[in-house]
Amino acid sequence: MLSAKDIMNPNVITVHKDQSVRELAELFLHHHISGAPVVDEQGRLSGIVTQSDLIFTNKKLHLPRSIAILDAFFFLDNPEKMKQEMKKISGARVNDICSKNPITVRPDSTLEEVATIMAEQHVHTLPVVENGEEGRLVGVIGKTDIIRSMVRNS
User: Among 6, 7, 81, 129, which residue has the least CB neighbours within 10 Å?
Assistant: First the structure.
């Protein structure tokens, strides 16, 4: 049975959380990738950033619905959600737009576990780490890696 270590790409292109969004876009275009792990100063995994995160920075701001009663406004939408959306839309650095605490797998995770996580969690770039979430980044699995494994093993 195939495992994450069999299908992952061990040559991981990472980004630093302080890189600019423009540098990130150029990196994605240059390397033809759709996502990358975000690492901190010590090289530890701190997030994941994808093409969807980049696209989000150009979306129209959704204004929260509210009602006015007398002189008071009551927001029908969660104001915290709007605050996060505004931060992401106006993000200039990778840290502003990336997803924190990414879902990860271990090198010995089965192909079925990896595929299930990707399908059910709508994850397109999955970091592979040793020793759980605080472990060393050893690879990354993308949708193409799953498809490639299907072709090779059929």
Answer: 81
The structure tokens 């390397």 sit at: 31
Banded pLDDT at 14 (limits 50, 70, 90): very high
Average pLDDT, the chain: 82
84-131 pLDDT, tens digit each? 665 655 567 898 888 888 999 999 999 999 999 999 999 888 999 987
DSSP letters, 34-95, are: SEEEEE-TTS-EEEEEEHHHHHHTTSPP-PPPEEEETTEEEESS-HHHHHHHHHHHT--BHH
Its pTM stands at: 0.74
- Residue 17 and residue 47: Cα distance in Å, rounded? 8
CB 15, CB 97: distance < 8 Å:
no
Please give the single-letter amino acid code of residue 124.
H
What is the C-alpha separation between 58 and 111, in angstroms, rounded?
35
Q: How far apart are CA 24 and CA 148, in angstroms?
A: 26
Name the architecture of domain 4-152: Roll (3.10)
Classify strands 45-50 and 66-69 as parallel, antiparallel or unpaired. Answer: unpaired
- Residue boundaries of the structural domains of the chain: 4-152
